[in-house]
Amino acid sequence: MLINNMWNNTVNISTDVLNNDVIYEEVVSKEVVQKLTVVFVMIFTPLFAFFGSLGNILSLVVLVQNRMRNPTNFLLAALAISDLLFLIHSFIFSFIFIYKSRDPIGGENLRRTTYPYIGAYGSIVTGRITTWLTTLLSFERFIAVRFPMRVRFLCRKQNTCIAIAVVYIVTLVAFVPFPLKYRIQYQPNSSLVILNRTALGYNLKFCAIYGTLLNILFRFLPILLLILLNIAIILAIKKTWNMRRLISKNSNHCTTYEQNRITMMLLTVSMVFLVCILPGALNSLATKVKPGYSIFGKQRNLYLSISCVTYFLETVNSAVNFIIYMAFSKKFYTTYKETFCCRTGSRVHKSSSKEIIRYKCRWQGSQSSSSGTHEGRLSSLLSNRTLIKKEQQQPICLLHNTGDIEICKFSCQKGERKDVNEKTERFS
Questions:
Q1: Calpha distance 381→375 (Å, rounded)
Q2: What is the CA radius of gyration of the chain?
Q3: Alpha-carbon distance 132 to 168, whole Å?
Q4: How far apart are CA 184 and CA 194, in angstroms?
Q5: In the predicted model, is pLDDT for residue 357 greater than 50?
Q6: Cross-referenced InterPro entries, in alphabetical order (predicted)?
């Protein structure tokens, strides 16, 4: 696998250079490989990993808000977690490269110590979880577009949570044999840590068959399903567009518009995923098809050059989802502003869902009371509700938040002042 081979690259260079039996084809020079490693692995990957991690943390905070809790956002929250974990592994991977360039022995010892748990397991597992969660997102959106009347039943919160749990648990368990293939040995008379294979690791037939099976189930199969689902979604949108316009006449136009934006957002997430992941999948497939194209083959330099770029693309895929959410989802953008961009005087106190605001109404005489009806007086009060006596000491809370509806009830009699309660209702 690509991630596994990239981590192997940090160890096997010294071993492979000493092997005089391997003659490399100079398709790509060693200097080009070193430059690509510096640019993509040591500079771009840690930058995207750092800022992408911040974006995934912000996405997770927004998606767990009460108003954002729906099946689609549950999947997006689970995706943010897997992306965050993958970016952490990417950052560690880049740090090992940088550390090894400064201290070859110390960096190599760190790589060998962490490889069984991070390189051979953690990076691969988080990447494969992201793959299947993205496929589940497309499947959920396909049901919403193709079977809009059944989406409430098929894509319930309970079903979505079960699907997320299955993806995480099955993936974590399926890749357990990978770290068991290695063992770490410390030699008392040497400062270099030795990474050896266990009996399972020496079972080359099992490793080849099991690795190929997992590569199909957790890489190529979900990518194929993702392509087919996205094509089906596009065709379903085109086919049912007129039907949705007819339905929208009897429903909330804002809701229909927001659903269309969500569909476009998820399609964008899927397209970015395919653009960033497909090159790595094809690169991995090429190692099985083309002899000599591997980390130990004759075309080693070409393989390492392409692997640097494809690994960086996988990092980009896990880092840009926050930008996509902000660009396409108005609800996500609004919730983000209300959560992180607090403005003075724009939020209601959270201690109660009902705020009591006192107004004082003063009547100017018998002319105003006799010249209009009760409805006219109520309309006048509603239009002038912000005009309050200067001597009133209680602060007035003006409701500007999206989702707050003011329902004012005034009860005034001629020639006297009376306090009026304003009740607010909040809906999600």
A1: 10
A2: 30
A3: 9
A4: 6
A5: no
A6: 7TM_GPCR_serpentine_rcpt_Srw (IPR019427), GPCR-Ligand_Int (IPR052954), GPCR_Rhodpsn (IPR000276), GPCR_Rhodpsn_7TM (IPR017452)
Whole-model pTM: value is 0.74
- On whether the CB atoms of residues 125 and 1 are closer than 8 A, the answer is no
CATH of 2-340, one of 1.20.1070.10, 1.10.510.10, 1.20.1560.10, 3.40.50.720: 1.20.1070.10
User: What's the burial of 10, exposed, middle or buried (CB within 10 Å: 0-12/13-18/19+)?
Assistant: buried
Q: List Cα–Cα distances, 406 to 298, 353, 366, 425, in angstroms.
A: 74, 12, 29, 7
Helix (H) or strand (E) holding 422: strand 419-426
Question: Please, which residues have CB within 8 angstroms of residue 217's CB and are 6 or more apart in sequence?
Answer: 174
Place of tokens 């934006």: 261
Which pLDDT does position 349 carry in this prediction?
42
Q: What is the dihedral of CA 279, 285, 289, 294, to 10 degrees?
A: 80
Residue 136 CB coordination number (10 Å): 23
Element (H, E) at 407: strand 404-408
Contact 330, 264 (CB under 8 A): no
169-174: long-range contacts, CB 8 A cutoff, minimum separation 24: 171/125, 171/128, 171/129, 171/132, 171/218, 172/125, 174/214, 174/217, 174/218
Distance of alpha carbon 345 from alpha carbon 427, whole angstroms: 20
Q: How far apart are CA 403 and CA 66, in angstroms?
A: 13
**413 pLDDT more than 60:** no
3-state helix vs strand vs coil in the chain, percent to 5 = 70, 5, 25
